[in-house]
Design brief:
The protein is of the alpha/beta class. The protein has one domain: TIM Barrel (Alpha-Beta Barrel). The protein is 39% helix and 15% strand. The chain is built from nine helices and ten strands. α1 runs parallel beside α2 and α3 packs parallel to α4. 46% of the residues are buried.
Length: 303
């Protein structure tokens, strides 16, 4: 066991839910936990843990250990859907699986790839995730641009990505879902300004915004709460965690410099009613303690 695995994050568990529906007042934001932070748990166990801690939903990242999008059967998907329903959990779909398409290249291929066949592989993956989401009752699928492999102009990459985003949005709409694009540090589209440029280029009304608040805090100027208000009408998905300015490192709450209270108030004030997913993908080795502390922190910041 490495030194990073020996620490325990403390925090009181929020009261567990029973039956269906939220256990919290209507004005409270609906919190979820991302399965990319539960990489060492079977999906059934992850669902039970998230529900027992009092979360309202689960942000499912279809990946090798959790409904592998290339191998999951209708029977497996149906069993997960029934389990979510029994535990009263809503679900949204995240598509950040690192090596599910290429075991040697992280997040490749992407929608930016100059090879149409490679782009089609990414689109097929996203479409499969949509179908899993649809069968689980999800309304939103979040995705991102990736990073270009070749040196090409911003204009060429923007035009290519805009076309592919339209394809994603249309396929999602055909399946009764919303395609939400996430700016991601280090990728071609990494800030809200880049997102606005892409949104204008794509010009598709069904393309919405997936906002990771930590990303806003770590890689661009401006108050996250004010930026939430400015983009409120575009929001379809929100992820939260702590971070430090200038460092893309997902941290448990209290270990970074993000003031989460105003962020939650801004989401509430904007009337955002989707899931707010906690994304702590580096903390799977201590997931039960981190997930417990996260919901205690977030509920405390809202009270």
């Amino acid at each position: 066991m490495g030194p990073e695995e020996s620490g325990v994050v403390t925090g009181s568990a929020y009261p567990a839910k029973s039956g269906t529906g939220s256990a919290y007042d209507a004005h409270m934001l609906r919190l979820a936990y991302n399965t990319n932070g539960l990489a060492h748990h079977r999906l059934d166990d992850a669902i039970d843990l998230v529900a027992d801690l009092g979360y309202d939903g689960i942000a499912l990242t279809p990946d090798v250990p959790h409904l592998d999008p290339m191998r999951a059967t209708p029977t497996e998907i149906g069993m997960v859907a029934a389990h979510l329903a029994r535990r009263g959990l809503d679900v949204c779909i995240q598509t950040g699986a690192r090596f599910v398409l290429d075991p040697r290249r992280k997040h490749q291929p992407t929608l930016l790839d100059p090879d149409p066949a490679a782009r089609d592989r990414r689109l097929t993956f996203l479409t499969r995730c949509m179908e899993i989401g649809r069968d689980l009752g999800a309304e939103v699928l979040a995705f991102w641009s990736g990073s270009p492999l070749a040196t090409e102009s911003t204009e060429v990459l923007d035009a290519r990505l805009a076309r592919e985003c339209v394809r994603v949005a249309e396929r999602a709409a055909e399946r009764g879902m919303i395609a939400a694009f996430e700016p991601e540090p280090g990728m071609h589209v990494e800030t809200l300004a880049h997102w606005s440029r892409l949104r204008e280029a794509a010009g598709h009304p069904a393309l919405r915004l997936a906002l990771d608040v930590g990303h806003v805090h770590c890689n661009q100027e401006g108050d996250p709460a004010e930026l939430i208000a400015a983009h409120a009408s575009e929001l379809a998905d929100v992820q939260v965690e702590d971070m430090r300015e200038g460092e893309h490192l997902h941290l448990p709450f209290g270990e970074g410099t993000l003031d989460i209270g105003p962020v939650l108030a801004a989401l509430d004030g904007a009337g955002y009613d989707g899931l707010v997913g906690v994304e702590l993908s580096r903390d799977s080795h201590r997931a039960p303690d981190v997930a417990r502390a996260a919901i205690a922190h977030l509920r405390g910041a809202q009270s």
